[in-house]
Amino acid sequence: MIEYGHENAEYLYHTPSEFEKSGGLWAIRAGRNKAKPNYQVGPKVIECYSVHAVLGGSVTLAYGDGAVRLKGGDLFCLFPGLRYSYQLAENEDPLRMYWLAFQGDQAERLVERIGFSREEPYVIGRWTQEHERTMMSIHGLMRDQAEYDEALLQLRLYQLFVTMSRQAGSQPKTLRTADWLERGIQYMNTHYTENIAVADVAEVAGVHRSHLYQECIRLLGISPLQYIIKLRMERGEELLRNNGLSVTDIALSVGYPDLFSFSRAFSKYYGMSPTQYQAQQTK
């Protein structure tokens, strides 16, 4: 570390490659420090996200209209465009921190998974030795260009976020209905042609099947099963119009085990059999 006016610190700056920026997350800078008695940063705003881990001592974080005192094991996140400041809080132990600044389309979702929000940008008691080892590996890759591997750095970044997202000493914040329902809808949109059941959707969403049903009815107007059928029927109808496939081929392509079950579902949905629909398209 190098001695500065208010700290001893190491700053690591990274220029992401096109490969890194083609993904959903990339590092911009990182570092570690040991604060001096006059330590203070801000008030200011930054252009990216930055997660800070308090290793020892304590720090007072001011954000928006709030403020909180954090100690060893706690984390806080700086959001882009959000005014903040932090400074040494009185404590017998010296303040020591790691930090990692990053950007990308997945950045906000990833910090939300940890439990950060713009209204409450900190979590208590989350930092572990496992996180520290991963952070040190990230620092090493950014520090030593001879060891730098863009794919490995991406791997370590996601590894850090996955492990920090796990429950560790605090209850995770309750997901909004929109969050888990979107996860369930995306699962159905991706896998409707496969042999999925409503129970699978509920498991992915992380809620009870009956609660999934109630919220789908309330917000989508149809049940999860009806939504899966809707996706299959619309895709089946598209293939009947635009493809030279047989009806049996189409049945198997949209998630039905045989021609009969597809024909029965299609007839119920559109009021005519797939063969009749296909014949209409050739007139």
UniProtKB/TrEMBL annotation:
Name the UniProt record assigns to this protein: AraC family transcriptional regulator
Entry keyword set: DNA-binding, Transcription, Transcription regulation
Cited SMART domains: HTH_ARAC
All residue ranges annotated as the HTH araC/xylS-type domain in the record: 182-280
UniProt key word Transcription: yes
Classification via SUPFAM superfamilies: Homeodomain-like (SSF46689), Regulatory protein AraC (SSF51215)
GO molecular function: DNA-binding transcription factor activity; sequence-specific DNA binding
